[in-house]
Design brief:
- The protein contains 4 helices and 9 strands.
- With about 190 residues, it is of the alpha+beta class.
- It has one domain.
- It has a 9-stranded mixed sheet with strand order 1-4-5-6-7-8-2-3-9.
- About 30% of the residues are buried.
Length: about 190
Amino acid sequence: MLNRSAAMLLAAAALPLAACDSGPSVKAENATAGEVAEQMADAGGTGSFVNPGKWESKVTIEDISMPGMPPEAAAQMKGMVGNAQATQSCLTPEEAKRPKEDFFSSGQTGCRYDHFTMSGGKIDAAMKCTREGGTQEMQMAGTYSGDSYSMVMQTAATGQGPTSGMKMRMRVDAKRIGACDGTEEKS
């Protein structure tokens, strides 16, 4: 269920999770991505919950397995392990104040958080996405501040289809590197 581009989207979705560790906290259970986004917006009040600007994210796949994958494809996937992929994105002040619902689910539908906790510089979340023929479970844990975050994400897919049985662990390290200048991707 989660291909390389979806993994990159998931990593990009983590950007709004970087918040001031002395700021508000969010705790949700059995919540949709929209409900978590709303709690994030409410917790931020009239100010920015995250620092807007140009962010650089480095995604490193630490481990991946996909039973039944053709050998050539498996070799290509294993070749991605340990190679950091860097992207830059621009988070506007408006997006920082009111994160969009799909920031928290990478645009996937049928997702619910088993739990989502962000407080005191730590984040811990587990989300399950159900789609035709399968389920994808994701766990995220890490640390954050207003200008950086580091998170480990694990995902496992079950059900039918080509990604059934896939497991992946990746690390996302990101930092705010200045003001947006138009050369970065839009969030």
